[in-house]
Amino acid sequence: MKKILAYTLLAGVSGYVGAFLFNLQNTNDDSLARFTSSVNYSGSPQFVALPDNSTTRTDIIPDTGNDFVEASRTSTQSVVYIKNISERVYRQSFMDMFFGMGEQSGETISSGSGVIFSADGYIVTNNHVVVDADRLEVIHGKNSYEATLIGTDPASDLAVLKIEEKNLPAIPIGSSRNLQVGEWVIAVGNPFNLTSTVTGGIVSAKARALHIVKDKFPLESFIQTDAAINPGNSGGALVNRKGELVGI
């Protein structure tokens, strides 16, 4: 009795599967005919054009147009070259002093970049660009200015200078808080007074602490970017695609 029941079930299942396959074959006969008629069985390759029913995706990587061009044009006008001039006294050996050579002095010059953030001559830069300076000189375009050190904050490595000039091209101020990882940014500097240099990249990370600020209570919250940074770019601008200042 059990064997008869098993055979009956097996026959029923087989019949159902056969009916399903027969129905599938009838349904797709036209599709299979179209497919097989396009295949060349002679052994030589044959390329069949697929129907053009795709749509162009413009939302994956948006067209930036001339965003970098305009942002570079506006931001480079606000970046200056800074010369740090310090007087150094060099002590001579005992024999030099004995024969009247005494102490000698000379100038030591280092340099960096800065950013004009107000039209009346206030400039922000890195503190390490201006540290130990006896005299500061700012070069903007073809003009040279003696700069006054207004204040420094070694904990955040920032400093503010002032030059006596009006109607300067102040850079628009953006928000580093609103900056997103993966967003395009531009690094602008004025290394060695070779006019402004512009490089581009993305924000790789935010709020980095690298323990490089030599202060008792350092405040480090760096923006990491893969934009190339040239020697002499210290104190320069990091701007977004709108040309707004988002970092130093």
Report what the structure shows.
There is one protein chain. The chain has 248 residues and is α+β, with helices and mostly antiparallel strands. It has a six-stranded antiparallel beta barrel with strand order 1-2-3-6-5-4. A five-stranded antiparallel β-sheet has the order 9-8-7-10-11. The chain folds into two domains: 34 residues; 181 residues, Beta Barrel (Thrombin, subunit H), CATH 2.40.10.120. Strand 4 and strand 5 form a beta hairpin.
Please write out the topology.
Layout: H1 2-27, H2 29-37, H3 67-76, E1 79-90, H4 94-98, E2 104-116, E3 122-126, H5 127-130, E4 135-140, E5 143-153, E6 158-162, E7 184-189, E8 197-208, E9 222-225, E10 237-239, E11 245-247
Antiparallel strand pairs: 1-2, 1-4, 2-3, 3-6, 4-5, 5-6, 7-8, 7-10, 8-9, 10-11
List keywords for this structure.
248 residues; alpha+beta; Thrombin, subunit H; 5-stranded antiparallel β-sheet; 5 helices; 22% helix; globular; disordered N terminus
